[in-house]
Every structure is written in structure tokens, then in C-alpha cells.
Amino acid sequence: MNPAPIPEPVRTPVPSVGRAPADHWRRFRRLMLLMTIVAIGTAGFAIWQMRIAGVPFHLHFVIAMGGGIVITLLLAGVLMGLAFVSNRSGHDEQVSISDD
Fold first, then answer.
1. pTM value surpassing 0.70
2. CB neighbour list of residue 39: distance below 8 Å, 6 or more residues apart
3. If phi over 0 gives left and psi between -120 and 50 gives alpha, with beta otherwise, what is residue 79?
4. How far is residue 13's CA from residue 34's CA, in Å, rounded to a whole number?
5. Which of 1, 46, 70, 100 is 20 to 30 A distant from 29 in Cα terms?
6. In this predicted model, which residue has the larger pLDDT, 45 or 91?
7. Buried b (16+ CB within 10 A) or exposed e, 46-73
8. Using CA atoms, how far apart are residues 9 and 27, in angstroms rounded to an integer?
């Protein structure tokens, strides 16, 4: 009977120390611009598909559906982007060092 293989230790990502904080925020803004374009495109596509399906439209319906899609995708992008900024700028490493 063979023993179970020993898993490799998890490598922690090395923060990009050489980069200025402005670089991290520039990447965050670029991600948010991309997410805004994707969110508006997705909302437009959903409205277009529902119009093709013959769903009766009212102004409030379009505003609620489009706004819900856009806000949900932008919130997901903000949370994901802030996690990336925190990791890349070294803030996560500072917290784990102070906990030890």
C-alpha cells in the first residue's frame, strides 16, 4: 500500500514591491472601464433578446432590468478589483505578518 503523496506547499504571491501605488490604481481603473463596457453590453444584449422573444416592454421594466444587470456586474468588478489591488500592493502580506 502506497502512502498518500505529500502536497506541495502553497506559494504565496509576491507583491509587486517595485511598482508605484498609482500603477495598481491605474490597473483598477482600466478593469472598471472594461467592466462598465461589459455590463452595458450585457444589459443591452439581454434587452435585445427579450425584445426578440416578444416580451411586452414598459419603461420601468427596461430601467429595472438594465440597472440591475449593470449594478450587479459593476459591484462584482469593484470587489474583484479591490482584492487584486490589495494583493498586488502588499497590504495582504502586511496583515499576515502582523498576525504572526
1. no
2. 69, 70, 73, 74, 77
3. alpha
4. 25
5. 46
6. 45
7. ebeeeeeeeeeeeeeeeeebbeebbeeb
8. 30
